[in-house]
Every structure is written in structure tokens, then in C-alpha cells.
Amino acid sequence: MSTPNVHILFFTIFTGLLLSTLCDINQTQNDVALFIFGDALNDAGTNNNINTTSAKTGQIGRKGLNRHNLKRFRTQSAPKKGLGLNRHNHKIFRTFLALFPTYDETFFHYPTGRITDGRIMADFIAEYAKLPLIPPYLQLKNDEFVGGANFASIGAGALPETFTGFVVDFKTQRKQFESLVKNLRDNLGDEKAERIVLDGVYFISIGLKEYVAVLNNPALFQSVSKEDYVGMVVGNISTVLEDIYKVGARKFGFTTMLPIGCLLAIQLATGNDSCLRQGTELSKLHNIRFSFIFIFIFIFTHNAAFPATLAKLESQLQGFKYSLFDLYTSLTERIQHPSNYGFKDGETACCGSGPYGGNYSCGGMRGVREYSSCPNPAEYVFFNSNHLSERAYHQFAQLIWNGSSPPYNLEALFKHGNV
After folding, report:
1. Is the dihedral of CA 151, 298, 366, 395 positive or negative?
2. 117-159 pLDDT per residue, tens
3. Is domain 32-414 annotated with CATH 3.40.50?
4. What does each C-alpha distance from 277 to 267, 274, 288, 292, 295 come to in angstroms?
5. Which of 158, 212, 367, 393 is 20 to 30 A from residue 205's alpha carbon, by CA?
6. Do strands 251-255 and 321-325 pair parallel, antiparallel, or not at all (unpaired)?
């Protein structure tokens, strides 16, 4: 007579375990938040929302360009009251925007602030993780949270001094993340907020702008040890990572520095017609040519130092896990052999002007009005002189997600709470 009761008890326990397992799987695949930090590779519209009234002080607010003032911003050489810009800094500010025609038309059909023809790597990663497009933090209301937040800013650097007031540097992005976590605690309670932060994945691309500075001041970087300079950049990145870790983050995704000497604007500025050539004899080179070679040296040094830094953090910080994608090699392969990856051109920009499309003129709003745009950006590795096409970003996102990036790919970090 007790047998039916035993069966009922067994069925109840089994059902409970099954439901618990299904809930855990569902949470792992669908409810893990994505937090995005970095520069132009990851910016989904942050710079549209910088409070330009505070451009000189570097303060970042939630007011900025919107549908109401965008038309005036596009048509005037310098805005009047309201945007806080003058003729001197207006052109600089435009450098860090992509809110112009021709941008983002492949997917969105209107400019969103992404500096490509469509989606960026973070957009595809969100899709693979079954998340919605992750919005810029500065677009969120205090009580709003949809799958994560994007703090990345076009032109941002690892050092706070990089383009202060016009971009959101890495340390300020960290402060914004801390503010977001505080809002999560206030709105969801400590336990749920801590779980979101702990389970979340943090995708980061930062540091490139510090090495572009080699072009702006070549004499300085001929007298400074490359090891010391790279150490300063990597050290700043490491410090911010430790701060984010202290808030509760554990799972990180990174990219190596891309081959900056291969950017078309850099080739045009240095007079090199190939990113893989270093020119003639050193004794005949102008300072800017020295800069071109220094760029390669700095990037190689950074890409050698950064993995060691991550390995050190993993050994020192309990639970710290990471993925490191070799963007340098992957992009170089597509530039050298575009047809192997479905591209027709790896050395010319789809949108721009001048040799290789190397003038940063796409959209006609950065001083040079004349530019041309190709009918099919998917045929090009580069969309403009400095940034890649949606198709290139899509390919890289696939490799980041389920490729062989050591020590884990991003899919593994999303699907497992404790890898």
C-alpha cells in the first residue's frame, strides 16, 4: 500500500530536480548580462549622448545629441546655445561621432552612432547569447535594465588624458558601471543585483588610441622606452579591470590590438602604400616614417605584454576567467587575402576619399565634404579609413563566440557560471 506513495514521492523529487536543472540552463543561456567597455570597436552610440556643455571639464551627462538637435548639429559649422561647443572644438567633437548619413545603413537604415555600415561585434555577441541589442549606458533611465549596458566610447583610451571632454575614457566607464550597479541594487535588491554582476560577461576593447599618439608626437616616442609606455597603458587597463572585479565581475572577453599600421588613414598619413612594408632605409626616413615603424613596435609589445597581464590577474584574483581573441592576426589575414574570407577588397575603404579611401571623410561632416561610398560594403574589409565593415565584425564575432580563443571562448563563459 505504501508503493504508490513512494512513486509519488519519487516523481515529485524527480520533477523538482528536472525543473531546477531547466531553470539553471535557461538562466545560463538567456539571462546572463553583457557589459561592454572600450572604444570605437564597441561604441553603439555613447558619444551621441555625451553632455557637450561640459566638454571642457570632461564631465559626462545624459543630455547630448538627439533627434531634435541633430539636424542643427549637422548643418551648422558651430552650434549656438545648447550644445556647448565652439568653432574650435566643434570639428574635434565631430571626429568622435558617426551620427551621419551612410553610417549604419546596412542593418539599421539610419545612423545610430556605430562607426560602421551596420552592426558591431558586440551586437552579434548579444545575438549569439540570445540577448537584445545592448543599449548605451547614457541612454538608460535610472530604473531601466535590458540585458546589460554598453559604456564604450569612440576615441576612448586607457589613459584619462586621452581626448578629455570629448569621449568617455576607460576609468570613467568604470565609474558609470559602478553607478549602474548601485541602481540595480536600489531597484532589484542586493541579492539579485549581485547575481547579475557575478554571472555577467564583460567584453572589452581598449588601448588603441594611446598608440595612435605615436603619430602626433614622434619625437617624444623616440626618447621614451616602448616597454615603459606599454607598461603604463597595460597597467592602467589592469587597474580598471581589478576595480571592475571588486564590484563583482568575473568573466571577461578581450581582443588584442589590431594592426594599427594597416589602418588606411595611417597609411595615408605616413606615405606607406602597404601596412606590411616598413619603407626604405631608416637613415632616409622622415620622423613620420619613424612613427610608422614605432607603431608596429608598440603594438607588438602590447600584444606580447597583455596576455601575461591577464594570466597574472587570473592567478591572483579568485574566479577571474577570460577570453582573448587575436584580432591582430585575424584582420591581417583578411587584408592580405580578402577573397579567402568572401571580400573583394582588403586595402581600400568603402566610404571616404583620397588614396585607399584613407581620408577620414565618410559622411562629409569632418571638414572634408567630398567623399564617395560603395554600393555594397560587405565586399570590403574596411568601411571607412579607420574602421571595419559589418561583415568583418560579424566574422570576428563568430570567432570570438565559438572559436579557439584562449583560454576560453565567449560561448563557454556565457554558458557556464563557473568555467
Report:
1. negative
2. 999 999 999 999 999 999 999 999 877 898 999 999 999 999 8
3. yes
4. 10, 5, 14, 10, 13
5. 367
6. parallel
